[in-house]
Amino acid sequence: MFTEWDEGTQIIEEGARNATLSRFAGKLLIRLGMTAEARALFDRKAARCHPPLPEAEVESIWRSATRFAKGVESEPGYLPPDEYEASLESVRPGDYSDVGQAQALKAAYPDTLRYSEATDWLVYYAGVWYESAPAAQAVAQELTERQLAEAHALLEDAKDQMATTGADMVLASMSKTKAQGMFTQAQRDAFAAFEDARVYAAYALKRRESRSITNCLKEARPMLLTSPEQLDADPYLLNTPSGTYDLRVGQASKRDHDPADLATKQTSLDPNSEGAEIWAEALDVFFQGDTELIDYVQRIVGLAAIGQVFVEALVIAYGDGRNGKSTFWNTIARVLGTYAGNMSADVLTIGGMRNVKPELAEAKGKRLIISAESEEGVRMSTSVVKQLASTDQIYAEKKYKAPFAFTPSHTLILYTNHLPRVGAMDAGIWRRLIVIPFEAKIDGSSDIKNYADRLYRTAGGAILAWIMEGARLIHAENYHLTAPARVVAASAAYREENNWFAQFLDAHCDIDDGLSERAGELYQAYRLPDDLFFGTTIGTCIIVLKKSKADNSVLFVNASDQFKRFGNKNKLTEENRAQILEWFTNRADVDYVTKLVSNEEIAENNYNIAVSSYVEPEDTREEVDIVALNAEIKRIVARQAELRAAIDEIVADLEGENQ
C-alpha cells in the first residue's frame, strides 16, 4: 500500500524538499523500521527532489529521522512494524449507514463479538467469551477510534500529496471552483483524495455519538448471531487461563485458546502438581483414609468437569457439622471457576412459590451446580430433581431475556446436615439419589480456620489436576460408576427411612397370611401418620373429600388438642388417631369438638369453611366466686391499713429519738 502511494507522487519542488523528506522518513521508519527497504525507499524519494539536495543534507535528514524513530520505540503503546502494518487494515465501511458501520464492526472484530438472544452480547477476552453488553459497547467505541485515526492518517497523506503536487498552492491562490479547473491530473487526484478523507473523518466523528453506537450494535446483532447451542458445545474441552485441555486425554492435550471454541467458562487457575501432598492429606481427613471412597469421589468430581450428563444423579453429601463437606465442595467449585455455580436449596424442595426459571437459566453451560444446607424436615421436589438430574431439555429464561431451552451439562450436588424427605418410591427418583457420607469429626487442633482458602492458595493447581485425572479415568471406564460399600449403605438407609408405608406396616399392623383389614380403614390410618405435621409451625387444616355421602352436610372437627408432645415435636399417638377416626365415622355433634353443618348453612356463611366458624371453642377460663373475691379484697385492704398504721408509729418513734 505504501509503495503504491509513493509511486503516484511527482517531483518535489524547491521549498518543500526538506519538510517532505523529513515526514516521509518518519513514516517509513514507523511503518517499516530501520531496515534496508526503508532506506531504499527514502533514497528513491530523495532522488525526486528538483533541484537535488546535497548528499550530506539528505544523510542529515535520515539520521534525524532515525533518532526520532528510536524515541518513538521507547514510548508506551509503541507497535512493532509488523503489528503496525496489521493495524493498518482498513476499518472503513462500505457505505456510511448504520448497516455499513455494523458490517465494518463484524469485519474488524470477527473473533471478538458474538450475540445471542439468550445471553445478549458476548465479548472474547483472555481466552473466554464474557457476557457483557458494556464490553460490546466498548468494542464499538474502539472501532470509531480506529476509523477516526484512519481518517486522520488519510488526511495527512492527502495533504502530503497536495503539497507534493502543488495543489495546495493552487488552492491558496484562487477560489476552489477556479482551482479545480486549473488542476493537473495529479493535483486533481490529490484534491479528490483530500476531500474523500475529510468526509470520512466527519463520518467517523459522527459515529462516536451515543445514538450511533447503539444503532451500530443493533444492526450488528443478526450479523453476529449465535445460538445458545453453539456455546460451550464441546463437553470435553476444559478452558483454563493459559490454554484449553481435552479431558479425555488429560494434561498432555493442552493447546492455545481458540475463539471458535465459543467457551464461555474458565477455571480459576491452571493445573499443576504444586501442593499435591497437601491435597492428599486433606482427602485423607475428609474421607477418613477410605481410599475406595476417595477414588469414587474423584470420579464423581471428574464427571462434574465434563460438560455432558453421563450419570443422571443428585449427589447428596450428608453428615453432621464440622466434617469437611462444605470445605471440600466449595474448594472444588472455586477451582473450577465459572464452570461451577450455585442453586438455592429451596429450588429442590416443595413449597417454594417464586419463579425458579431465572435460576435454572444460570445452569446453562455450568458443569457443577452446588446447593447447600436444606432445612430440617423439608420435602424434596422429585419433579425438579428429575428435571435437573437428567438429559432432557430444560426450559428457562433470564430476566428480561428471551426464553430458551438447553440440555443439562452439569452434575448436581447437595451438601446438607439434614437429608430432605422423599415422598415417592419410584425407581426414577431413587436411581438418581447418591448419598456420600461425610463422617469425619474435625474439631480442636485439627480444625483449621479458613481451610478452604488455604487449600486453594497452596494446592489449587494440584486440585484441578486431580479433577482432570478423575475425568480421564471415568471416561476410560466408559462412565461406569461402582459405588463403594459406604455409599451403598448410606443410600440404602436413606431410601428405607423414606419408605413411609413400610414403616407404617411395621409400627401399626400385624402381618400374617391369615390377617385382613378393610382397605378404607387401613388407608385412613395410613393417611394420619405420627409425624403428619412435622415441621409445621402454624395451625393446619385437613379437608377430607368423600364420594358416597348420605347427605350434603359437612363435618367440622376441631382436633387441635389431639397430640402428645415429644421433645420439640407434636405427634399423633394411636389414641389420638383412634379418637379422630371415631368422630369422623360417627358424624355427630360433640360439644366443642365436632359440628355437622348443612350445605345451606355454609352457603349463608359465604362458604366460610374455617372450623372455628362452626365449632364453638370451650371456655377454659377459671370460674370466679364474686362474693368470696370481694371478701378477700376487703380483708387485704384492712390488712394494708394495719400495716400502714404500724409503719407510721415506727416512723414517729424514730423522729422522736432524733429530736
Question: Which descriptors apply to this entry?
Answer:
single chain, 659 residues, alpha/beta, 24 helices, three-stranded antiparallel sheet, 12% strand
User: How much of the sequence is in beta strands?
Assistant: 5-15%
Shape: elongated
Enumerate the spans where pLDDT stays under 50 for 5 or more consecutive residues: 1-9
Instruction: Tell me, rounded to a whole number, the average pLDDT.
Output: 86
Strand order of the largest sheet: 10-11-14-9-15
Which structural class best describes the helix and strand composition?
Answer: alpha/beta
E-strand count: 19
Please tally the helical runs, counting DSSP H or I stretches of 4 or more residues: 24
Using only C-alpha atoms, the radius of gyration works out to 42 Å
Helical residues, percent: 40-55%
Q: Major sheet, described briefly?
A: 5 strands, parallel
Q: Compute the separation of the termini in Å.
A: 124 Å
Give the oligomer, counting copies of the same chain as homo and different chains as hetero: single chain
